């Protein structure tokens, strides 16, 4: 587990050195998502890294959409990505699309053909894969590898003009089919795809491959430090080849860091999209999703996510971060900010038989016991209240200090009450408790007559606001996928629990995004989509305690 703070992040050291040696004058980074899905917490790591690095050295960061695959991409994703980056608190300098550079990329491909470094191949995708060789055996050269420059120029022009069907021809780099690095065995540069592109429409029917396009994009934008995840380490020689042979004026450098993995968390856009498409979740922003929009809807703050990303640092090796670490940071962020109130998730009615009928008194309650600046509020108290169903037991085990017949507990911010009678329905279920209260024991009165061991929370019945509570568990747990199974077979059937209960009257006007700490239940966020006037919906962000320490 990567738990150590890595303030000496290795990429930062490289940047500092490049600036002091004069190798670069200004650091330029980029965050380059493919708009084929919503961003997830792993992307947040890359966003924080790129933007914070440039900020620290007074440089620039571009947001660039790597939109070279029109079949999978969509403007909906472009818009959501922009929103998420801004919500995290970052402002990009340039906003670019790989598709802005299709003209230039085409020119660079022509240059490679003219230099004898690229050729049109008629083999099928399968044939190309099969002749690539393996880690131990070299690949075989294509029968089309030695076409003349003229023939290649002619065929590539006709690919562009739409004469060929998808898959009928590709443009390949001519490097070395025996290279020990498989990525250098004549990788594909361009393919034919007859598809509508969200930016360029029907202008193109050939599209550059990511590995060819990416270095060109970096060079065109003058990116100094092109930071990507470790899987791309073996691509670096080809990255450098593209820059060199395409004769790009600016030479960017690629650096790799370990991608973020979290326990019990699916982190691949492809799989997340499957969950959405199969309706296993309620859209990309379902609070159970590890997407930025899901975390936002669940109640995470940008501050908590940024603090988490800073803490996990930039390791050069793979590791799995405990999801509880992310939870730790939202607790830390909300501890002193959130109003601490009472909510009853599974209500049980309590009648206080010796409290005058029709009387309501207003009791003083602190808004946040750890932050006096948040002040106080008044909460109503009367003859009827709701308590939590599991704060009562008919036959309690030893050391149960909450309510049971004959026992006395403290009501938070109010009085001691004693359980005198249990009302059952015809099936023997507890439907109501009849208690007495002691007026001497009012909270804040300094009463020292006797002590009780349990304190429970409650909501006054006549002012209570009905509310829904949504409690979450991981969507998927970290079990090994067996042969022939999909990760969808490991969906946790209990990932969402919905309860109907009550909150204090002061929360009636809550709006989406308001955050509270509910006594004993944890931190909750008002759901921005499903809450209605008079019936707020609360998503549990995180419970109060964890065994985890950073
Ligand atoms: P996925 O596999 O989830 O689809 P991706 O890498 O294909 O992710 P891109 O849109 O290509 O998604 O990623 C944009 C940037 O975010 C890339 O620079 C990529 O390296 C980075 N990134 C993606 N996933 C992670 C992760 N789990 N941890 C850190 N960085 C990530
Ligand atoms: Mg990708």
Describe this structure in words.
This protein is an alpha/beta fold. Among the domains are: 2-257, 3-Layer(aba) Sandwich (Rossmann fold), CATH 3.40.50.620; 340-463, Ribosomal Protein L25, Chain P. It contains twelve helices and 27 strands. It has helices spanning 10-20, 41-56, 75-87, 102-114, 125-130, 149-160, 210-221, 236-245, 269-277, 292-298, 302-312, 323-334, and strands spanning 28-31, 60-65, 95-97, 118-121, 170-173, 188-192, 206-208, 225-229, 253-257, 261-262, 320-321, 339-341, 343-344, 347-352, 361-366, 376-381, 384-388, 408-411, 416-424, 430-438, 455-456, 458-460, 465-472, 496-503, 515-518, 522-526, 537-542. The chain has a seven-stranded mixed β-sheet with strand order 12-25-26-27-23-24-13. Strand 8, helix 8 and strand 9 (253-257) form a beta-alpha-beta unit. Helix 2 (41-56) packs across helix 11, helix 7 packs across helix 8 and helix 11 packs across helix 12 (323-334). The longest helix is centred in the N-terminal third of the chain and has 16 residues, at 41-56. The protein is elongated and about 100 Å long. Adenosine-5'-triphosphate is lined by residues 32-34, 42-43, 45-46, 228-229, 259-260, 267-270. A motif ('HIGH' region) lies at residues 33-43.
């Amino acid at each position: 587990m990567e738990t150590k703070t890595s303030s000496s992040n290795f990429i930062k050291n490289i940047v500092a050195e490049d600036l002091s040696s004069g190798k670069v004058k200004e650091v330029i980074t980029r965050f380059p998502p493919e708009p084929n899905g919503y961003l997830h917490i792993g992307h947040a790591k890359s966003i924080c890294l790129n933007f914070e690095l440039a900020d620290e050295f007074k440089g620039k960061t571009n947001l660039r959409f790597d939109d070279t695959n029109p079949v999978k991409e969509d403007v909906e994703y472009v818009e959501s990505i922009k929103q998420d980056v801004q919500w995290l608190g970052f402002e990009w300098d340039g906003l670019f699309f790989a598709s802005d550079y299709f003209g230039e990329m085409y020119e660079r491909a022509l240059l490679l053909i003219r230099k004898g470094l690229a050729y049109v191949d008629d083999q099928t995708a399968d044939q190309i894969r099969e002749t690539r060789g393996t880690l131990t055996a070299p690949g075989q050269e294509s029968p089309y590898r030695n076409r003349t420059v003229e023939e290649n120029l002619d065929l590539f022009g006709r690919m562009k003009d739409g004469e060929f069907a998808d898959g009928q021809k590709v443009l390949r780099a001519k490097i070395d089919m025996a290279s020990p690095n498989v990525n250098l065995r004549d990788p594909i540069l361009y393919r034919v795809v007859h598809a509508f592109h969200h930016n360029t429409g029907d202008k193109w029917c050939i599209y550059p491959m990511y590995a060819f396009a990416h270095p060109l994009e970096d060079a065109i934008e003058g990116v100094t430090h092109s930071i990507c995840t470790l899987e791309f380490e073996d691509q670096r020689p080809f990255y450098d080849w593209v820059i060199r042979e395409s004769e790009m004026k600016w030479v960017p450098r690629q650096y790799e860091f370990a991608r973020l993995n979290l326990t019990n968390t699916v982190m691949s856009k492809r799989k997340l999209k499957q969950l959405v498409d199969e309706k296993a979740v309620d859209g990309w922003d379902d609070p159970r999703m590890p997407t930025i929009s899901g975390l936002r809807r669940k109640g995470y703050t940008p501050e908590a996510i940024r603090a988490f990303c800073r803490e996990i640092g930039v390791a050069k090796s793979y590791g799995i971060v405990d999801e509880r670490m992310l939870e730790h940071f939202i607790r830390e962020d909300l501890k002193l900010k959130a109003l601490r109130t009472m909510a009853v998730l599974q209500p049980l009615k309590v009648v206080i038989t010796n409290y005058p009928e029709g009387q309501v008194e207003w009791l003083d309650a602190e808004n946040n016991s750890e932050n006096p600046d948040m002040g106080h509020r008044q909460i109503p108290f009367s003859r009827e209240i709701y308590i939590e169903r599991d704060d009562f037991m008919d036959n309690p085990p030893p050391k149960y200090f909450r309510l049971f017949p004959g026992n006395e507990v403290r009501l938070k911010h109010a009085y001691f009450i004693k359980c005198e009678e249990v009302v059952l329905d015809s099936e023997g279920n507890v439907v109501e408790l009849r208690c007495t209260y002691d007026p001497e024991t009012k909270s804040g009165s300094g009463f020292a007559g006797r002590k009780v061991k349990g304190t429970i929370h409650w909501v006054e019945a006549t002012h209570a606001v009905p509310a829904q509570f949504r409690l979450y568990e991981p969507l998927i747990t970290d079990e090994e996928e067996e042969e022939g199974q999909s990760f969808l077979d490991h969906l946790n059937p209990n990932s969402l629990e919905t309860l109907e209960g009550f909150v204090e009257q002061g929360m009636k006007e809550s709006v989406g995004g308001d955050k509270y700490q509910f006594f004993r239940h944890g931190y909750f966020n008002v759901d921005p989509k499903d809450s209605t006037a008079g019936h707020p919906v609360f998503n549990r962000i995180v419970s109060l305690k964890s065994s985890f320490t950073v």
